Structures are given as C-alpha cells and as structure tokens.
Amino acid sequence: ESPAEVLALSPSRDVYVDEHERERLQVEFDPQGVINAREVKWKKKDGTVLTVSLYARAIKNARGRVLAYEGMVLDLTAQKRAEENWHNSEHRFRVFMESTQSATFVYQGQHLLYVNPAAEAISGYSQKELLEMSFWEIMHPDFRQVVKERGLARLRGEEVPARYEVKILTKNGVERWVDFAAGVVELDGKTVVVGTAFDITARKQAEVELEQNQELFQRFMDCNPACAYLKDEAGRYIYANKATERLFSNIKGKTDFDVFSDAIAKELRANDMAAFLNGAVSNFDETTEGANGL
Predict the structure, then answer these.
(1) What is the pTM assigned to this prediction?
(2) What does the alpha-carbon distance between residue 23 and residue 156 come to, in Å, rounded to a whole number?
(3) 87 HSE (CA, 13 A, CB side)
C-alpha cells in the first residue's frame, strides 16, 4: 500500500489477524509505556499472514494520557518459516535415526550431542551415560587415540578417512568390531559430525576362523606326501601343495596345456569337465609327465 492507504487503515481491523489483539496490547503495555520485541500476527492487503516483532513506546501528555505510539516493526516471517522447516527436518531426522538399526551419533567438539537407541544397544551404555562421554571414550584402547585424532581433525576441516573399521569396548567390557563412517554437517550454524556404526563382530570372528582353517588346511596338505591341487573352471591351477610343487614347479596359474603334452592335457581336461558335470567325487586313473619328461 501507499503511505496514504496505510494511514487510512484501521489497525485492529485491517492490520492485526486477531482484531482484538491490539486492544489487549494496549491494556498490557500502556501502564509501562513500552513494547519490546513482542511477536504478533499481522496481515497484508491480500490476506497473507505475517509474523512481526513489535517495538513501540507510548507518547503521553503531562497527565500521563497516551496520545500516540511510535515504534518499528521487524518482519520475522522468513525466519519463522526457516525455524519451522528446521524443526520439521529435525523431527524427521530423529524419527529416522531412532528407527534405524545402525548406531548413530552426533558430536560437536569433544562431546556427544545425540545418540540413537541402536547406539545404546551396541554399547551397553544408556543415552544419558553416552552424552556425558567424549566421543572417543567408547573405543577400545587400541583405537582410542586414532579415533580422537581423526575426529577432531574432521571438525577442523582436515581430510581424514570417511570410513574405517574399529573396535569398541562395551560397558560390560566386551570387545565389538564396528564399520564406522562419519561426515561433517552444519547444525544451527555450527559444525558437527554425524556418524554411523554397524556391528561387524560376527564377520570379524568368521574371518579369524577362516584364516585359522586355511592355515590348518595348508599345514595338513603340505605334510601330505601325495600330490594335491585345486583348479578353477577354466582348468587353471589355483592351489598346489608342496608335493605337487616339487614335481611341477610354479604350476599355480597355469593350465594342463601349459605343463603337459596336448594328448595328456586333453585327457586331464576331459576328466576335469566330467567331474564338474558330475558334481560329486569322481575317481580317475591319470598319467602325467614330470618336469624331466618322465
């Protein structure tokens, strides 16, 4: 509106969304004569609602009668909309984080600001206990220093690995392996880190057992005086024990056609294919040539 149109407005009816609010403000603030940062709802000519912050003081005569008001108004509509969007986003974030199975946490500086129920479950600590800890305290002593250094460096904007595997120590002293990932975000104008952790303890235990089984298998096969080997579907040797290597050195990675004559190689290949197709233990009498041709 033009200045003339504004001056012609009735504040209670044309400006305030609630036409009685101006009267309530007058009753509340006339005695002290000052309105300081009071949020009220105004409306534009087209009916659009605004949130404004009202600053005003009463101009009184010598007898204390209010003659007029002077002041200013700050439009808070965009700010309020941004705050509402943030609160909605925060609500969605919490709903998602509290339903996910991965341990999730947020930290700023040295201290945790948020942990989800999955973080409580994997650590054995309550949310209250975790929020009183530095973010690296839950780590196993073998990893505590490196997690602290990387975590603080990440907050400083330095480049550090975004994902790695570390070991934590639960409240009951149980060691657990986790697949840890983290990234930096802005929250209320401040830099924070959001991280997730998946429990990979079972996988780590399986890897150790597999390594132990492979070592046991290797020792057993190397002590076996008979030739023992493994081939892939293409006929390449992918494993050979010491007895096989003594007869055919550097055989791994080769096929029978690289080691033997065509006639013998074709026979061995035919036996291999028959065993593949059979899908069970097959017995063959095979004749091969040693490195010296015998």
Answers:
(1) 0.50
(2) 53
(3) 6
